[in-house]
Amino acid sequence: AELTDQLTVSRGEQERIQQTLNAIASQIGYIEFSPSGIVESANDILLSIVGYERQEVIGKHHRALCDSSYTASLEYQHFWEDLGRGIKKQGTFPRFAKDGRRVWLEATYFPVTDEDGKVFKVIKLATDATAAQDKVADDTAMLDA
């Protein structure tokens, strides 16, 4: 009976965790990557920001959304190496939408580790910061004029 109770608690706990993740993913851009950067899933909010359909990004590498000069850099290599070591990344990141326009994502990349501390997934939560970044650029241009 004790084992059955433990399993029931575990199932209930698992359901609460899934409900929590569902609540987060229903309000903010959400994408999951393998530790090497391959897109495993993405929600509709994130897809609408970048203008892709789900099947167009699943199985593709994160670099498909980035500037090629950045993805060829040591900085980008270190970005994924750090994530692989369990180091989160946070900031405002330029990315490219399917139609080629630059979008800005205010995002946090969270490495997810197993019981041994090994990263098995990277989750990114993101909001569209394009309008705010465009305003900053416009304000800066006016000051420079």
List keywords for this structure.
single chain; 145 residues; alpha+beta; five-stranded antiparallel beta sheet; 6 helices; 45% helix; globular
Task: Give your account of this protein's structure.
- There is one protein chain.
- This protein has 145 residues and is α+β, with helices and mostly antiparallel strands.
- The chain has six helices and five strands, in the order αββααααβββα.
- The chain has a five-stranded antiparallel β-sheet with strand order 2-1-5-4-3.
- Strand 3 and strand 4 form a beta hairpin.
- The longest helix is centred in the first third of the chain and has 24 residues, at 2-25.
- It is globular and about 70 Å long.
- The termini are far apart.
- The mean pLDDT is 88.
Q: What is the approximate shape?
A: globular
Give the termini separation.
Answer: 76 Å
Q: Which strand-content bin applies to the residues?
A: 25-35%
SSE pattern: HEEHHHHEEEH
Q: Count the DSSP helices.
A: 6
Query: Which sequence of strands runs across the widest sheet?
Result: 2-1-5-4-3
Mean pLDDT: 88
Radius of gyration from CA coordinates: 18 Å
| pLDDT < 50 runs, ≥5 residues | none
The quaternary state of the protein chains shown equals single chain
Task: Give the helices and strands, then pairings.
Elements lengths: L1 H24 L3 E5 L5 E4 L1 H7 L3 H4 L10 H4 L2 H11 L4 E8 L5 E12 L5 E10 L1 H15 L1
Antiparallel strand pairs: 1-2, 1-5, 3-4, 4-5
